[in-house]
Write a structure and sequence with these properties.
The protein is of the alpha+beta class and about 240 residues long. Helices cover about 55% and strands about 15% of the residues. It is built from six helices and seven strands. β6 and β7 form a beta hairpin.
């Protein structure tokens, strides 16, 4: 009876593992088909326009080609993001090590500053090591800094601050943008959730979901706080 119960427990565990894997696969396929449909439709429409015998002046043709190029670049970004999520769903192991936090944050800030020279980016980072996967942590930083860059007006400030104690480090990235509505906050880290278009812009709604997956895979947490008209903080 004991052996039979052990066998049943192992079978149940295996079944749940397969069920989780199938659920992750279904979710990935649903996410991909949902998000890839729009740029593919736009590209097909633009190609049909170019194939028609109707005369197009040089300006119209240039606009169509530029729009097609932009949609193709969007597809590339989406595929890369979906691959990150697929790897996270599959439980691909990360490689934690002692990572000096200050140079990693400063490097991410430099990359962001090059994209947003009109923003003021201030970093006050403790000179500590964190137990993390270097590449995954940097990807999270770049996602959050880019999110702050997009939603911070020119000449406004983005502030990166760390606090640490014996057991953990808290990293806060604060922008001075329009803020996030209270009803949107609980959904920020959901895949493909965009909320208010004025805040989300043309993004796929995957960046924050990826950040959450990567932080949780390293044993961390990520939360957001916001006040309308004053800005947001990701912690």
């Amino acid at each position: 009876a004991a052996m039979f119960n052990t066998m049943l427990t192992e079978l149940e565990s295996a079944y749940r593992h397969v069920e989780r894997a199938l659920d992750a696969q279904r979710r990935f396929v649903a996410d991909a088909s949902h998000e890839l449909r729009t740029p593919l439709t736009t590209i097909r429409g633009n190609i049909e326009l170019l194939r028609r015998d109707l005369p197009l002046d040089a300006h119209e043709r240039a606009d169509i080609l530029a729009d097609t190029k932009e949609e193709i670049e969007r597809l590339i970004r989406l595929v890369n993001q979906l691959l990150v999520l697929a790897r996270a769903d599959a439980g691909r192991p990360l490689h934690p090590e002692a990572v000096p936090l200050k140079p990693l944050v400063e490097d991410a800030c430099r990359q962001t500053q090059s994209l947003a020279p009109q923003r003021v980016l201030r970093a006050e980072v403790a000179d500590v090591d964190v137990w993390a996967d270097r590449d995954a942590l940097k990807q999270v930083l770049l996602i959050l800094l880019d999110n702050a860059r997009v939603h911070t007006p020119p000449s406004a400030q983005i502030h990166v601050l760390t606090q640490s104690d014996a057991s953990q480090v808290t990293l806060t990235i604060r922008d001075t943008g329009p803020g996030i509505a209270p009803e949107v906050l609980p959904h920020l880290f959901e895949r493909f959730y965009r909320g208010d278009f004025s805040r989300s812009g043309s993004g796929a709604g995957l960046g924050l979901a990826i950040a959450k997956e990567l932080i949780q895979a390293q044993g961390g947490t990520i939360t957001a706080q916001s006040t309308l008209g004053q800005g947001s903080a990701f912690i």
